[in-house]
Amino acid sequence: MIPVEEARERILDYFSRLELERVSPIDALGQVLAEDIRAPFDIPRRDNTAMDGYAVHAEDTTGATEENPVTLTVVADLAAGYVLDTPVEHGQAVRIMTGAPMPPGADSIVPFEETDEPLREPTQAAVKAETVKVLKAALPGANIRYRAEDITENDVVIEAGRTVRPSEVGVIASIGLTEIPVYRRPVVAILSTGDEITAPGEPLEPGHIYDANAYSVAAQVRQYGGIPKLLGIARDTVEDLTAKVREGLDADMLVTSAGVSRGDFDVVKDVLAREGDVNFWTVRMKPGKPLAFGAFTAPDGRRVPHLGLPGNPVSSMVTFELFGRPAMFKMLGRRDWERPVIRAVTHDRVVNTDGRRFYARCIVTKGEDGRWHADLTGPQGSGILTSMSRANGLTIIPEDVPAAEPGEEIDVMMLDWEHAP
C-alpha cells in the first residue's frame, strides 16, 4: 500500500492541462481563462447618474432646506438610453433616470427624495412639473458614476488563469464579448462492472443491486466541471470488460468502479494488466484501499489514464473526491483542487484500527462557543451511501492514531458548507 499523498502525486504527474477552446461566457462557468481579457472601451463610457433624480449645478442648490427650498426650472426629462446634448444652464434642472448620461453642464444629481416631487406608488404615473423645489443642498459629484471609474479601455479586466464564475460572466458581458478562450472540459468515461449490477429503471433480479456508483461519480464529474460519458455496465468477463473499456478510450480519463480487489471475478486488474499499464493497486486509506491507477492505449496512440475505483459506493465517491477531482482540475487548468481543512471538536469516538488514514463522514456545525464541531453521520460502513448524503465533511484520522476521543480536536476536510451555519 502507498500513502495518499504519493498516490495523488503519481496520478497528478500523469495529467496536463487540456487544449484551448472558445465558448460562450455562460458555457465557460467553472473553466479557466486561457488568455487575458482586455476591455475594448471605458466602462462607464460616459458620466452617468447613479440615481433617479434631477441633474443640476450643485452651486445652484447652496443653502437649500425644507424650510427654504431652491426652485429650479425643469428643462428636460431624460431616460436611460438617451443622450441630451443641450447644456444645463444655471437655474435649470434635468429630470433624469438611473443610468442616463449626464447632460453637459450639470455636476450633481439631486435624488427625487430630496425634492418636492410627490411620492407615488409604483403603479402611478410620475407627476411632472415645469419647476422643482430642491429641499437639500447638493454636493458636486453627488450620485454620479464617472467615465471609466470601473474599467479603462485596454485594461486587463480578467487575467489568464482565472476560473470563470458568475461575476466574471457579468464583466465579460459588460464589454460585449460573446466568446472567450478557456481550457476545455475533460471528458470522463465511467464504467460500472459486475454481474450483479442493474441499471436504474430495469427490473431488479434477486441478488442484484442498482448502479449507484456510475451516477454518483458522473454527478461528481459534472459538479467539478467535466463532461461525464456513461458507458453502462460491463459483466464479469475479460471479453465484455475489454470491449467496454475500448468504448471509453476516446475520453480524457476512464473511470471504472469495482473489479480491483482480490475477488475471483474482479477482472479490471486483469484487463488493465493485459491492455494497459499498472501504476499502483492499493492506497493506505479507509474507505478506498483497493484503488487502481494506470493507463490504456487508445487506437490513435493516446495514453488514456484509468482510475479504478472500489466497488462499494462510499469508497467510490471518497476516492474520486481525493484523486479524480484533482486530476480533473489539473486538466481544466485549475490549481485550487485542495479542499479546506479545518479543526473541529469531535462528538464521537472515531476508531481507526488498521493503520490506514480514516476518512469518516461527518456533519460540521458552528457551536455557540465559536468553534467547529463534528458529528459522525452514523454507521461508517463503506456500503452506507446515505452517510455521504448527510455529510458536509470527512474526518482525517492519521494512520498512526488508533482513535479520536469525544472532545478532541481533529482535522476535517470540508466537502461543502451546507449544514454549517
Written overview of the protein:
This protein has 421 residues and is of the alpha/beta class. It has 4 domains: 163 residues, MoaB/Mog-like domain (Molybdenum Cofactor Biosythetic Enzyme, Chain A, 3-Layer(aba) Sandwich); 51 residues, Molybdopterin biosynthesis moea protein, domain 2; 98 residues, Molybdopterin biosynthesis moea protein, domain 3 (Molybdopterin biosynthesis moeA protein, domain 3, Beta Complex); 74 residues, MoeA, C-terminal, domain IV (Beta-clip, Beta Barrel), CATH 2.40.340. The strands form 9 sheets. The chain has a 6-stranded mixed β-sheet with strand order 15-12-16-20-19-17, sandwiched between helices. A hairpin with a 5-residue loop joins strand 24 and strand 25. The chain is elongated and about 90 Å long. The model has no long low-confidence stretch (mean pLDDT 93).
In short:
With 421 residues, the chain is α/β, with parallel strands linked by helices. The two termini are 38 Å apart.
Give the strand tally: 28
What is the mean predicted local confidence, pLDDT? 93
Gyration radius (Cα, Å) is 31 Å
Please give the count of helices: 7
Specify the CATH class of the largest domain: Alpha Beta
Supply the helix-strand structural class. alpha/beta
Span between termini: 38 Å
CATH topology of the largest domain: Molybdenum Cofactor Biosythetic Enzyme, Chain A
Shape: elongated
The CATH architecture of the largest domain comes to 3-Layer(aba) Sandwich
In total, how many domains does the architecture comprise?
4
Give the CATH superfamily of the largest domain: MoaB/Mog-like domain
Task: Order the strands across the largest sheet as they lie in space.
Answer: 15-12-16-20-19-17
> Which runs of at least 5 residues are low in confidence (pLDDT < 50)?
none
